[in-house]
Amino acid sequence: MTTTSPQGRTELLRPDGSPVRVLVVDDEQSITELLSMALRYEGWQIRAAGDGAGAMQTARDFRPDAVVLDMMLPDMDGLSVLGRLRRELPDVPVLFLTAKDAVEDRIAGLTAGGDDYVTKPFSLEEVVARLRGLIRRTGAADRRSESVLVVGDLMLDEDSHEVSRGGANIHLTATEFELLRFLMRNPRRVLSKAQILDRVWSYDFGGQANVVELYISYLRRKIDAGREPMIHTRRGAGYLIKPAATTVS
Amino acid sequence: MTTTSPQGRTELLRPDGSPVRVLVVDDEQSITELLSMALRYEGWQIRAAGDGAGAMQTARDFRPDAVVLDMMLPDMDGLSVLGRLRRELPDVPVLFLTAKDAVEDRIAGLTAGGDDYVTKPFSLEEVVARLRGLIRRTGAADRRSESVLVVGDLMLDEDSHEVSRGGANIHLTATEFELLRFLMRNPRRVLSKAQILDRVWSYDFGGQANVVELYISYLRRKIDAGREPMIHTRRGAGYLIKPAATTVS
DNA sequence: TGCGTTTCTCAGGGAATTCACAGGTTCGGG
DNA sequence: CCCGAACCTGTGAATTCCCTGAGAAACGCA
C-alpha cells in the first residue's frame, strides 16, 4: 500500500496501513545514527542494534519488515547473525552492508534469495532505494506499489533505470540517475545543496560542494534541453523539480 | 494458473489460486536457508526440515506440492525417507539433491517416475527451473502455464532448451542458456553482476565476477549479432534484456 | 585414452564517468 | 546602478568500469 503525503511524497506502508518497520544493525554508532535518521525520514519505524545479541533481542520483539545488517560485527560475525535472524524471521529480507573489497568472497550466495547488498561507503539514496525495492518485492508492502516515478511528462523507472521525457528516452549516468531520483521523490520541494550532497553522494565524499551544481547542470542539459524547464534554482536555498508550467500535471 | 506481477515476473499458482507449497529437506542449514529464500522469492510457501523424522512430520501437516530432498541425511538415508514420503504423499514430485559422484544409475531409476534431480553444488536458477518443471508437469499447477519465455522476437523453451531469435535457431552452452533464462525471466529489469552470479553460478563458485561480463559478451555475439541489440549494459548498475526498439513488444 | 567443447583466468585496450578548476554569468541588496 | 555572492558551465585529467582476445584447465563423450 502507498499513500501520498500532502507534500507529494509517496510512502510505503504495510498492508494494514501501519508504517514499515526496519531494524538497523551496525557496530559503528555514526552509521546507525545516519541510517536511522534517513530511514525515519522515509516515514518508517526504526530500531537500531550495535551487536549480534542486541540484534536478536530487538528482532524478537520489534518484528521488523526488513533488516539492514553490517557484515562486520564485534561479538559474532554477520553470517551467524544472519543464520539466527533467518530462524527467527524467515521471511524478512536483509540488506547487507559490506566493505568494498569483501564483496566477492562472503556475500556471494547471500543475495540469491532476493536479498541485496550495498558496499561501504554508500549513499543514503542507494540504501533507501534498495530497501524500498526489497520491501516491495518481498510483499511486506503491497506489491502494486509502483516502481515508476512520474513528475509532469518526466518518467523514471527504478527497475529498468530508464528515464524519459515526453516519451523520448534519455540516457543518464549512475550519479545523474540518483540525483534525478532524489529530486523526483521530492517534487515541488526545495532541496539544499547540502541535503543533496548528503543523500546522493557517499557519506565519505570529501570533494567540492559544487559537484551538485555541476550535476544539476548535466541534468538540465539532458532533461530540460530546449523544453520548458522542470529543474529550478532557488538562489540561496537550493533546487527543486516540478512539472513544466504548460504541462498538465 | 499463472499471474504476472507488476514487475513482470510470472508466478506459478495452484488451481485454487493459493501459492505452491514446497518442502525442503537437507541437513546443512546453509543449504535449506539458501533454498528457502530463493524459493520464497518465487512466491512459493516453504517449509524446511533437517532430517528424515522432521521431513515426515512436516510432510504430514504441511502437505507440500513438491519436495526437495537431499539424499544424504543424518538419521536415515535418502531412500528410506523417499519410501516413507511416497507412502504419505504418493503423487508429490521430488527433486533430489545428490553429490556429483553419486551413482548415476540409482538416481536414474528413482527419477523414472517423473521425479528429477540436480547435483551439488547447484545453481539456484537450475533448482528453480527444475522445480517449476516438476510442478507444471504433475499438474499441481495449471498445465497451461507456459514453458516458453518470449521477449520481443527472442524465444526460449525451458523444456526443450531451444532458443531462437526471429525464427533462427541459436545454439547456447549450458551456462549461456541459464544466464539468458535468468535475464528473460526478468525482462526490463536491471540485474547486477552480483545478482546474476548468485543465481546463475553454483553457490560455491569462488571465481572472478567478470565471468558475468564474459558470458554477456558470448550471449551478445549469439543473440544480438548484427541485429538490433536486446541485451543492454547499465554502467555501474548491471545488465538488462528488453525487446529491440523496432520490435513490437 | 584422446579430442572437441566448454568454462574460466588474465590482462590490455578503450570508452564512459566523475570531478577539480577556473572563468563567465546572473542575481539581489544596498 | 554597482558590487559581491551565488551559480553555471567548458575543459581536461584521472579514474573506474566494461569489453574481449588468447590461452589454460576442466569436462564430456566416444
Automatic annotation (TrEMBL), chains A, B:
Q: Which SMART domains match?
A: REC (SM00448), Trans_reg_C (SM00862)
Q: Where is the Response regulatory domain?
A: 21-135
Domain OmpR/PhoB-type: residue ranges: 146-243
Q: What InterPro entries does the entry give?
A: CheY-like_superfamily, OmpR/PhoB-type_DNA-bd, Sig_transdc_resp-reg_receiver, WalR-like, WH-like_DNA-bd_sf
DNA-binding region location: 146-243
Highest taxon, organism lineage? Bacteria
Q: Residues where 4-aspartylphosphate occurs?
A: D70
Q: What keywords does the record list, in alphabetical order?
A: DNA-binding, Phosphoprotein
Family annotation (SUPFAM superfamilies)? CheY-like (SSF52172)
PROSITE patterns hit by this protein: OMPR_PHOB (PS51755), RESPONSE_REGULATORY (PS50110)
**Stored PANTHER family:** REGULATOR OF RPOS (PTHR48111), TRANSCRIPTIONAL REGULATORY PROTEIN TCRX-RELATED (PTHR48111:SF28)
Q: What is this protein called?
A: Response regulator transcription factor
Give the source species.
Answer: Streptomyces kunmingensis
